[in-house]
């Protein structure tokens, strides 16, 4: 306990063994700056977060209770904006599409990601190559992905994907251009880009599974499927929880892919909350209603995240 | 028969023992499977690349085996200002990433090396920003960008409006913090006894030791900023400020440009992130699992 530790100095008190400071007055000043120091280092981040995250959030909350009228001043409307969000048919459809898309993309990415992880797990060089190739969609910017898939989904019979489908005697499909296929087509793009990401997380999780458990299970006469179900799956539980949390945050706020693939069309069949909010706020200037919609979305994100966290904690106990 | 021959032990290296299968039929199935997977996931991007170099007028003419290769698409794309968009993208990603690293290192130093009242609250605030992406805040964010509080600057229509908001990113701060906590204190203590101040210690001792974490933060920040769409969409007012991803939509609706030009521009928007990923793949994977663990 007598060794010179930096810890007490860091917590603000003058370090007893530190190099002797000449006078008690300057010593006190040193203590002051020591206490202020961490805040100085944090200042840039805190200012940026305040200006670009928390101020906008406060503004959104404020706007959601007002009818926002530029130059005329805002008018308090209470919960009117919120009731419009909940009752308006366009919003209801958008909420439904958002949920379908989020659930479908999350489930699809998890299932295919797990399958990919099981198939491509391992240290061999050729597996590394296949994994890298499979992972590329996740690295590509969403704007690029959207343009590529618009070309692949070209709805003519000789479009790229329709061509491939015709080899198997299927199609042709209108994909993004028809109301009954558009949402599924968007979902497929989301899974295509999301599954490789999940795969990598699953592979990291699989690497942490104790190899001797596999051997022990095999020695007890368990086949590969039972081994997977009783050894691998329980070990992957935390990974599932993580991926669900991420999906809850990311899935509900989908914007770019819809905006670029269909912009909500055809006939509103792929309109999600974010594209509707964007149109309301920036094209029709209904800022109050748009803000209320954002707050509903934020609320859902927070609730989902906390629910997954709570479930995870209960599970690990 | 309790003991197994050692040659087969490697079937326990993976969950299903799939990769350890022997025999020509199993091998063949594996190869077919790999080819299908690569075709499904990388194929569309390869099609994009081939299309960018071939004379294609409309999507039904796109083939993976073109008869002629040409650079016409690129020259036509350059005529339409794609180089300008590319330059804008690089300016945004370059300056944005530089600022992001400076802000993250500075904040992480405070969080990893100092203990102070209110620290838990700060961590909680930083974590909570992960639930506040640009998309959800789009409407009020555009108002804030048009009139930044206190300083009253209008960032709409400037590249600064796309750069400054990405400078603080919770992921980078948390990854840097975790990494800095692992660095042993001894070196710093020695420097402190020699009379070095915090800034000198951070710059000359901690930062060089953080190089692996800088790789992780760098590659993740790069792909994140390159992928930004909502922020440029809110900030850019005319083509002069378009980033390349943002410009793709305009090129698509430009009827005279044609598909080849769009594909050429898309390829230019794809390559930087793919090259960065391939160059820093190990760091990327590290960040992927770190980020996932942090939620």
Automatic annotation (TrEMBL), chain A:
Chain positions covered by the region annotation Disordered: 1-26
Keywords from the UniProt entry: Cell membrane, Membrane, Transmembrane, Transmembrane helix, Transport
Gene3D superfamilies (alphabetical): MetI-like
GO cellular component entries: plasma membrane
ABC transmembrane type-1 domain location: 95-308
Localisation: Cell membrane
Top-rank taxon: Bacteria
Membrane topology: Multi-pass membrane protein
Entry-linked SUPFAM superfamilies: MetI-like
GO biological process, one term: transmembrane transport
Pfam families hit by this protein: BPD_transp_1
Main localization category: membrane
Chain ranges passing through the membrane: 36-55, 94-120, 132-152, 183-207, 228-249, 287-311
Low complexity bias: start-end ranges: 1-15
Family in the record: Belongs to the binding-protein-dependent transport system permease family.
Official protein name in the record: Sugar ABC transporter permease
Organism for this UniProt entry: Spirilliplanes yamanashiensis
Lineage, highest ranks first: Bacteria, Bacillati, Actinomycetota, Actinomycetes, Micromonosporales
TrEMBL record, chain B:
GO BP annotations, alphabetical order: transmembrane transport
Organism domain of life: Bacteria
Recorded coiled-coil stretches: none
Alphabetically ordered keywords of this record: Cell membrane, Membrane, Transmembrane, Transmembrane helix, Transport
Entry membrane topology: Multi-pass membrane protein
GO cellular component, one term: plasma membrane
Segments passing through the bilayer: 31-53, 85-109, 121-143, 155-180, 201-226, 257-280
UniProt domain ABC transmembrane type-1: residue ranges: 86-280
Localization, UniProt: Cell membrane
InterPro entries: MetI-like, MetI-like_sf
Family of this protein: Belongs to the binding-protein-dependent transport system permease family.
Name of this protein: Sugar ABC transporter permease
Organism: Spirilliplanes yamanashiensis
């Amino acid at each position: 306990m007598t060794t010179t530790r930096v810890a007490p100095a860091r917590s603000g008190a003058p370090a007893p063994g530190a190099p002797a400071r000449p006078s008690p007055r300057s010593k006190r000043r040193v203590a002051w700056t020591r206490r202020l120091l961490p805040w100085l280092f944090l200042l840039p981040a805190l200012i940026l977060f305040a200006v670009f995250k928390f101020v906008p959030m406060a503004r959104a909350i404020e706007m959601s209770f007002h009818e926002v009228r530029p130059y005329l001043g805002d008018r308090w409307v209470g919960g009117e904006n919120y009731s419009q969000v909940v009752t308006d048919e366009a919003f209801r459809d958008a909420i439904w599409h958002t949920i379908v898309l989020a659930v479908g993309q999350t489930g699809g990415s998890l299932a295919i990601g797990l399958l990919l992880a099981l198939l491509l797990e391992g240290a061999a060089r050729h597996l590394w190559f296949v994994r890298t190739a499979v992972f590329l969609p996740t690295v590509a910017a969403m704007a690029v992905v959207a343009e590529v898939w618009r070309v692949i989904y070209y709805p003519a019979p000789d479009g790229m994907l329709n061509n491939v489908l015709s080899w198997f005697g299927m199609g042709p499909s209108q994909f993004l251009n028809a109301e009954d296929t558009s949402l599924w087509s968007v979902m497929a793009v989301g899974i295509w880009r999301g599954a490789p990401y999940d795969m990598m997380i699953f592979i990291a999780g699989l690497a942490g599974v104790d190899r001797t458990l596999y051997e022990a299970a095999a020695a007890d006469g368990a086949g590969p499927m039972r081994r997977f179900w009783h050894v691998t799956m329980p070990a992957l539980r935390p990974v599932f929880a993580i991926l669900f949390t991420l999906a809850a945050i990311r899935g509900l706020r989908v914007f770019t892919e819809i905006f670029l693939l269909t912009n909500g069309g055809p006939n509103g069949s792929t309109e999600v909350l974010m594209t509707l909010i964007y149109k309301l706020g920036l094209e029709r200037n209904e800022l109050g209603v748009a803000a209320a919609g954002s707050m509903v979305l934020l609320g859902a994100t927070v609730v989902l995240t906390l629910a997954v966290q709570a479930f995870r904690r209960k599970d690990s106990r | 028969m309790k003991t197994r021959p050692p040659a087969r032990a490697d079937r326990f290296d993976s969950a299903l023992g799939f990769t350890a299968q022997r025999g020509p039929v199993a091998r063949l199935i594996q190869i077919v499977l790999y080819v299908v997977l690569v075709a499904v996931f990388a194929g569309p991007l390869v099609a994009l690349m081939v299309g960018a170099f071939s004379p294609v007028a409309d999507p039904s003419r796109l083939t993976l085996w073109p008869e002629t290769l040409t650079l016409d698409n690129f020259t036509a794309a350059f005529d339409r200002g794609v180089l300008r968009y590319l330059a804008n993208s690089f300016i945004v990603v370059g300056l944005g990433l530089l600022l992001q690293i400076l802000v993250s290192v500075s904040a992480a130093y405070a969080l990893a090396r100092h203990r102070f009242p209110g620290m838990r609250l700060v961590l909680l605030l930083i974590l909570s920003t992960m639930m506040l992406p640009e998309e959800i805040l789009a409407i009020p964010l555009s108002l804030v960008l048009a009139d930044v509080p206190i300083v009253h600057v209008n960032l709409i229509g400037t590249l600064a409006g796309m750069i400054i908001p990405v400078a603080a990113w919770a992921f980078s701060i948390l990854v840097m913090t975790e990494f800095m906590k692992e660095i042993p204190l001894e070196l710093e203590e020695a420097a402190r006894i020699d009379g070095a101040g915090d800034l000198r210690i951070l710059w000359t001792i901690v930062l060089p030791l953080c190089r692996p974490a800088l790789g992780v933060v760098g590659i993740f920040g790069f792909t994140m900023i390159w992928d930004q769409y909502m922020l440029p969409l809110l900030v850019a007012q005319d083509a002069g400020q378009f980033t390349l991803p943002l410009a793709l939509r305009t090129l698509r609706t430009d009827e005279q440009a044609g598909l080849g030009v769009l594909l050429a521009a898309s390829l230019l928007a794809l390559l930087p992130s793919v090259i960065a990923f391939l160059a820093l793949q190990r760091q990327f994977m590290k960040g992927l699992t770190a980020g996932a663990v942090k939620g």
